[in-house]
Amino acid sequence: MKIGIADDHLLIISSLEQTLRHSGYAQISGTYTSGKALIAGLEQDQPDILLLDYHLPDQTGAELARYITYHYPDVKIIALTGFDRPELATEMLESGCMGYLLKSTASTEVIMDAIERVYSGHVYLDKSIRDIYASFIRKANMGKEEKPKLTHRELEILKEIAAELSNAEIAEKLSISKRTVENHRNSIMIKAGAKNTVGLIKFAIELKLI
Q1: Alpha helix locations (H) across the chain?
Q2: Which parts of the chain sit beneath pLDDT 50?
Q3: Contact predicate 210/163, CB 8 Å
Q4: Angle between helices 178-192 and 167-174 (to 10 degrees)
Q5: Is 179 exposed, middle or buried (0-12, 13-18, 19+ CB in 10 A)?
Q6: pLDDT at 142
Q7: What is the C-alpha to C-alpha distance for residues 95 and 78, in angstroms, rounded to an integer?
């Protein structure tokens, strides 16, 4: 697995490099201390996973995530930042990141778990961020009309989506057809106003399903 690191603190880069090399299955494809250096590096070689800080000297992590998601859609991005502001988590996830970790709470085990899960195509939120994120979503929705209620089956399926099960796995677990799962999933997305799996996970967090 090739991993890139974009952070303007050399000490952070050095620590991450050491952690990842000791994992035994990660190769550091490049380290970058600015957005310009990152973009130039990606033209030569793209990592499987990119650990991206929010604040770089010349561009924000969200700006870079949008650029990378558009030009290099196969690169999976995990935001690794010192900022625990929920609005930044929202911005990074909506910009294409598949993970959001805090430097203050992300242990070696958490970082490796996040990398493995995101590499497998799942969205990963640090546990400390999940609580903050849920609170932020509730506050953001104060004063808005009540969200449409989900049926019992839709709640079941949304919970399994949040547990990172595929449509086929959900169908097998609930003893229903894959087509039925897909229909319920589309219904949930419409009710939640979600555009993708990240939106469904945010909705699941709001409903305290995870």
Answers
A1: 10-22, 35-44, 61-71, 86-94, 108-119, 127-140, 152-162, 167-174, 178-192, 197-206
A2: 143-145
A3: yes
A4: 110
A5: exposed
A6: 53
A7: 11
